[in-house]
Amino acid sequence: MKKFKCGLAVQIVIGLILGIVVGSVFYGNPAVATYLEPIGQIFLNLIKMIVIPIVFSSLVVGVAGVGNIKKLGKLGGKTIIYFELITTIAIFIGIGSANIFHPGSGVNIHELSKVSIKSYVNTVQNTHHSLADTFINIVPSNFFEALSTGNLLPIIFFSVMFGLGIAAIGKKGKIVIEVCQGVADAMFWMTNQIMKTAPIGVFALIGVTISKFGISSLIPLVKLIITTYGTMAFFIVVILGIVSKIAGTSIFKMFKILKDEIILAYTTASSEAVLPKLMEKMEKFGCPKAITSFVIPTGYSFNLDGSTLYQSIAALFIAQMYGIHMSFPAQINLIIVLLVASKGMAGVPGASFVVLLATLGSVGIPIEGVAFIAGIDRILDMARTVVNIIGNSLAAVAISKWEGKYNAVKGDEYIQNLNSIEEIA
């Protein structure tokens, strides 16, 4: 008789269900947040603790392996082109979906949530900057300041330059590469240990969310939730499915590889929670370390497919809710603003919400309407996080294929090993 094995994915789902039950039973009870919120925050802090060391060490090793600034520049150029193409498609699909299904039509604006968006508005005002400013800020004036703030883009820039420097000095840099490889291996070991606590972290995070907002908060906005989730599912299966086919794999193989990370990202609504495992798994799937360690972290700022898709739907939802008709030229303007704002706000805490506010203000839609979405933002954030991580993982495969360095044999062997493990379990 086969012995049942409760894998990480199953454990996380159990934690999710228990969190929903506890949050529902103790809805409105502040004691839930008092006891569970610290647990959830500790779990997220554990993840954030290891992200920067992994990104830095992996990038240095990968770039030093490339050792050629011309090749690296070519890789960077292809990566940015790919990111811009996919995010533009995501925005068009989001706007098309909102025009077809009209999720905001018929919503009673007098039922607006009383959630305050003052802090988000202040963030928009304090951090509003141009696309040029974003590229200027990629170059850190103080690397250690970038480390302390956790801003990935300047860390990536410094890591790339440092890796090229190590490659340029030849044998003298060998010991530095070995140290960085050792750091990366140690961090991945830590990641595996931290992941064992994921079910507890998920239980705490979901329990707090449900206890604060309740299941009933979803009812008035069920059409928006269904439209957003349905559009994101379409984007993953059809658009990313086509991209994966072109890249020589399939979207369903990606699901199989990333099932634990998909569940974890969905339940925590945190992309950072799965960044180390994405890099590790894509390398095992046949992507070179140099490409994986560069593309995936960079994608966390420039390839947020789920976030841009959500912002386009949410903007039209609010316009429809207020009875504002947006003409075709106005919607084209919305697309342009989203393309710029989503890059201009890269690295800002609560970026999706902040970008949405900045976008609404730029195209003449009342920003007060965002208060209605704020109560369910966590539910929507869970879905867009999943799209973001699948999109960035697939980007590593697509760029590897584009560079002619994707190892399909290694990828097939990894899938077969996963199948074998599942059969044993």
UniProtKB/TrEMBL annotation:
This protein's record includes keyword Transmembrane helix: yes
Gene Ontology MF annotations: symporter activity
GO biological process: dicarboxylic acid transport
InterPro entries found in the cross-reference section: Na-dicarboxylate_symporter, Na-dicarboxylate_symporter_CS, Na:dicarbo_symporter_sf
Pfam families in the cross-refs: SDF
Residue spans crossing the bilayer: 7-27, 47-69, 81-101, 152-169, 200-226, 232-252, 313-341, 353-374
UniProt GO cellular component terms: plasma membrane
Localization in the cell: Cell membrane
Membrane topology designation: Multi-pass membrane protein
UniProt-listed SUPFAM superfamilies: Proton glutamate symport protein
Chief site of localization: membrane
Gene3D superfamilies: Sodium:dicarboxylate symporter
Alphabetically ordered keywords of this record: Cell membrane, Membrane, Symport, Transmembrane, Transmembrane helix, Transport
PROSITE patterns: NA_DICARBOXYL_SYMP_2
Stated name of the protein: Proton/glutamate symport protein @ Sodium/glutamate symport protein
Organism in which the protein naturally occurs: Clostridium tyrobutyricum DIVETGP
